[in-house]
Amino acid sequence: MSSLLERPLKSVKGKPAQSIVTGLPQVNLLPPEVRAARGLQSIKRWLVIALLVVVALCALVWLLAQSVASNAQSDLENAQRETARLTQEQTKYAEVPRVQAQLAEAVRARQIAGSTDILWKQYFDAIAAVLPEGASMDSFAITGSTPMEGPGAAAHALQGASIGNIAFAARSVSVPDVSALMDALDSIPGLADSFVTSVQITETEGFGVYYKIDGSVQLAPSVFSGRFEPVSDTTPPAGDAGADAKDEGE
């Protein structure tokens, strides 16, 4: 029978011989229990791998949490030490608020005392600059307000209210133009209501004959220097106006 199976089949003309085994269905003769056991082993292997991965991830998360907790604890200890140090340092500066309060009072007192401060020289120079040609200044007399007292009365009825006035005496070798002199005095920033009280011919030894001019001019609030007040970047001190007037007069 084996020889019969091994004998080659006759081939049809034009077609190759085919094996009788080709194309036959195959049957798995293993018992179902064996197949189930093999599948269970594969599932167990994958479960073990998954369990190991989960354990590794849990260990990694735990290590990360421990690191974060350690850093937070270290930061807390550093902050507590810094707080203790600052608390100790604070006792060294317990006098600072008191000194600051005294300093603020001193600054305020200086502002009050200097509220009526005037840079007089620039106004004296400005008045001398507008005198007639050949004239010179003999004297100045100043009356004005103080931080504790208000301004005095005007020199005469034609002058309005002001913070003070400057009375001056000058001499001129020629007849002065009183109207032009008053206009020139009123043109000085911070000065107003100028008035020439008298013009007298006087003679002295060594100088000869001259005209003695007595007059006064009122002071406006803008003459206050303001140098003891907080400095403003946009507004120059009021006292600078007198310097400008001096330059114009020259």
Protein model, in words:
With 250 residues, the protein is of the alpha+beta class. It contains six helices and four strands, in the order H-H-H-H-E-E-H-E-E-H. A four-stranded antiparallel beta sheet has the order 1-2-4-3, covered by helices on one side. A hairpin with a 3-residue loop joins strand 3 and strand 4. The radius of gyration is 56 Å and the shape is rod-shaped. This is Fimbrial assembly protein. Keywords: Coiled coil, Membrane, Transmembrane, Transmembrane helix.
Instruction: Please tell me how large the radius of gyration is.
Output: 56 Å
State the strand order across the main sheet: 1-2-4-3
Estimated share of beta-strand residues: 15-25%
Note the main sheet: 4 strands, antiparallel
Structural class: alpha+beta
What CATH calls the topology of the largest domain is: Alpha-Beta Plaits
Number of helices: 6
- Domain count, please report it: 2
Q: What are the secondary-structure elements, in order, as H or E?
A: HHHHEEHEEH
Q: What fraction, in percent, of the residue positions are helical?
A: 40-55%
Parts with pLDDT < 50 across at least 5 consecutive residues:
1-7, 241-250
User: From the structure provided, what is the oligomeric state, counting identical versus distinct chains?
Assistant: single chain
Proper CATH architecture of the largest domain: 2-Layer Sandwich
CATH top level label of the largest domain? Alpha Beta
The average pLDDT is: 78
Query: Which overall shape is indicated by the principal axes computed on the Cα atoms?
Result: rod-shaped
Query: In total, how many beta strands?
Result: 4
In angstroms, what separates the terminal alpha carbons?
150 Å
Transmembrane segments: 46-65
Keywords: Coiled coil, Membrane, Transmembrane, Transmembrane helix
Biased composition (Low complexity): 233-242
Protein name: Fimbrial assembly protein
